[in-house]
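Try it yourself: sequence plus adenosine-5'-triphosphate, in.
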Amino acid sequence: MMLLEAAGLETFYGASQALFGVDLAVGEGEVVALMGRNGMGKTTTIRSICGLNPPRAGTLSFAGSSLRGLRPHRVARLGIGLVPEGRRCFPNLTVEENLTAAARAGAWTHTRIETLFPRLAERRRQYADTLSGGEQQMLAVGRALMTNPKLLILDEATEGLAPVIRQDIWSSIRKLKEEGLAILVVDKTMSELLPVADRCVVLEKGTTVWSGLPEELSDDIRNRYLGV
Ligand code: ATP
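Structure, out:
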């Protein structure tokens, strides 16, 4: 059974339609890459799933129950952890307090987050706004994990980070994948994204135009929809 299933999603910003029919599925333990050029609807798709921009049409279900009409906190409680674009942490809380604020009972603890991101252990009592960009991103992932999600959604988690820090983020994603977490990931760097992806979904102008295995992404599809 698919964990997340979306079909025919249509989402608007006021009167302006951004999604015209997005189809997407993520299975248990699967890593799905959501791809497409700038402005094609990746972030809007994620916001639709999480209840931040509820779709006006389509079906959307998670672990067998509908997400349509659910507020964001309800979606989170069902087991979807979001790492939003722009890594939003509480700037005037410490690393530890940021993690505590997100915590819900389950397998993820401060210790486990600090094992995944040893840098966060070193910065435990530091305010989030004094962290480097990479450390803030690790904290944003840590916060999402503290909710004990069944599905983790990452929107541009490596954006603007130095190569060595990007590798830290990707290796944490690999570890989470090995532990069986389902992950939906948007990232501009295809050469880093494709090796971790089990499947790809490609958006063009708010519509799913292709989905398949990373090795099936032909030059034609890359040229037509991904601008490479
Ligand atoms: P990027 O990689 O640039 O973030 P994206 O694929 O995530 O792009 P979206 O941000 O989902 O694309 O944008 C999809 C469409 O919705 C675009 O046409 C965009 O201009 C529009 N859009 C996004 N946010 C808003 C908003 N707050 N108000 C109005 N239109 C918006």
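One thing you can check immediately is this: The CA atoms of residues 91 and 129 lie 5 Å apart.
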